[in-house]
Amino acid sequence: METDPSAFPRRVLLAVAGLSPQIVTETLYALAMRGEPVSIPTEVRLVTTSEGAQRARLSLLSADPGWFARLCRDCDLPPIRFSEAHIEVLNDADGNALADIRDPDDNARVADQITETVRALTADPDCALHVSIAGGRKTMGYYAGYALSLFGRPQDRLSHVLVSEPFESSWEFFYPTPYPRVITTRDNKLVDTQDARVTLAEVPFVRLRDGLPERLLAGRASFGETIATAQRARQPPELILDLPGQRIRAAGETLSLPPAVLAFYAMMARRRLNGLHAARWTSEGIDQQYLAEYRRIAGDLSGELERIEAALADGMTQDYFDQRKSRTNAALTAALGSQLAAPYMIQADGGRPQTRYRLGIEASAIRFAPLSEPDDADGRSASLPRAAERDQGRHNGEP
Q1: Spatial distance between the Cα atoms of 286 and 272, rounded to a whole number of angstroms
Q2: What is the number of structural domains in the chain?
Q3: Which residues contact 227 (CB under 8 A, 6 or more apart)?
Q4: Are 285 and 185 found together in one domain?
Q5: How many CB atoms lie within 10 A of CB 226?
Q6: Are the beta carbons of 34 and 149 closer than 8 angstroms?
Q7: From CA 213, how far away is CA 334, in angstroms rounded?
Q8: Are residues 360 and 321 in the same domain?
Q9: What is the tens place of the pLDDT at every residue in 186-232?
Q10: Comparing 381 with 296, which gets the higher pLDDT?
Q11: Is 264 helix (H, G, I), strand (E, B) or coil?
Q12: 174, 204, 226 - which closes a domain
């Protein structure tokens, strides 16, 4: 997997800011001073409050003083996309722009919005994301950094920009100019911006993306829900099979499965519980074991049951076994992601030519039990993708 940000055509600098939009120009300057043109962002995104957005528009994007355009000229930077459309204003629960983060509700909303912004940017395979946590309230930087830890990929980076004193405390400072420019500090001293030092401190972070289920990578989720899911992923594996409900719970995620897939998975789980050796299509009684699980799920009145019985009249074939094994593993991977699904997969046990298969999870972690409805209402439910569901009936007219 590519890890060098310069290899990606879209390179986004995402900054969180409060009343100091200078972090945009300071961070860009620090990146430019590396002397590596390919490390320069192609796009800037700014997440801030309503007042912060106004300050950014007036100080960075206006014709005068227009510090963003000035920096690009002074440092001879390549074209970088940054306009008012790239400034995202934080909103409260009612959709009103936040002037500041004043209470726990505002704080929760900011966490969710920053998390979603990072998730969406990291969903683009052509993008390398660089997150700056130098601006805004401390909680904003924390959420941005933690969101990148949750969703970040090998090409993504996290940093904090460092500005030497006394320039750090001056509203008039935006970056070290290549020419003399005298400004006033907070204590009314005069200093020349040529003398300032700006450096970029990259912040190492743990990448947890591979431990998140696909539904969180592909769609909106709150900050709290994402954290809780990441924590569940690091708990000991537990598998619960709810046959009447046609669903399972694995890694804390509830998955709805079609009867044909669930019956095969239940058969393998029950063999594991009963201490039976790993199975293959020639295993004694395996066709009847599969039929028994299907009856528990769909009942004798199911119109599909007769077709399955006819298909298995002469025993289970290798093709029949392999297709259901593959579809079961595909359903788990699609819902949970490869890392989270790994302990629950049907795995090879032994080599060719007599390869057998079993569940990797220990028997002590498997239960057959109903799943209560509230567990589905908390946003942790997933289903087999529609295309995979349709595929269940495509093989020789079987379910």
Answers
A1: 13
A2: 2
A3: 146, 150
A4: no
A5: 23
A6: no
A7: 8
A8: yes
A9: 888 999 999 999 999 999 999 988 777 777 887 777 888 888 777 77
A10: 296
A11: helix
A12: 226
Q: Is residue 324 part of a domain?
A: yes
Q: Which domain holds residue 283?
A: 237-391
Give the CATH number of the domain where residue 218 resides.
3.40.50.10770
399 within domain boundaries: no
Closest Cα to residue 289, out of 315, 311, 310, 314? 315
- The rounded radius of gyration (Å) of the Cα atoms in the chain is 28
User: Six-digit token pair at 208?
Assistant: 């947890």
Sign of the C-alpha dihedral computed for residues 300, 302, 308 and 314 taken in this order? positive
- Read off the amino acid at residue 23: I
Mark whether 219 and 241 lie in a shared domain: no
- Let me know: does 49 contact 99? Beta carbons within 8 Å: yes
Distance CA 380, CA 366 (A): 19
| Residue 35 burial (CB count, 10 A) | 6
Residue 174, SS3 per DSSP: coil
Same domain assignment for residues 287 and 164 = no
Report the amino acid identity of residue 333: T
Task: Please write the tens of the pLDDT for every residue from 80-127.
Answer: 999 999 999 999 888 899 988 888 888 899 999 999 999 999 999 999
Length of the chain, please?
Answer: 399
User: Do 200 and 244 share a domain, yes or no?
Assistant: no
State residue 203 phi and psi, 5-degree precision.
-110, 115
Domain-located, residue 43? yes
Q: Are residues 344 and 220 in the same domain?
A: no
Q: Is the peptide bond before 166 cis (omega within 30 degrees of 0)?
A: yes
Mean pLDDT for all residues in the chain: 87
Mean pLDDT over 332-351 rounds to: 86
- Residue-level pLDDT at 300: 65
Query: Quick one: which of 3, 74, 7, 11 has its CA closest to 40?
Result: 11
The angle formed by the CA atoms of residues 111, 116 and 118, to the nearest 5 degrees, is 100
CA distance linking residue 200 with residue 33, whole number of Å: 10
Spell out the alpha helix ranges (H) of the chain: 22-32, 50-56, 67-74, 104-122, 138-151, 214-218, 223-232, 259-273, 286-298, 303-311, 318-336, 338-341, 374-377, 386-391
Three-state secondary-structure class, residue 172: coil
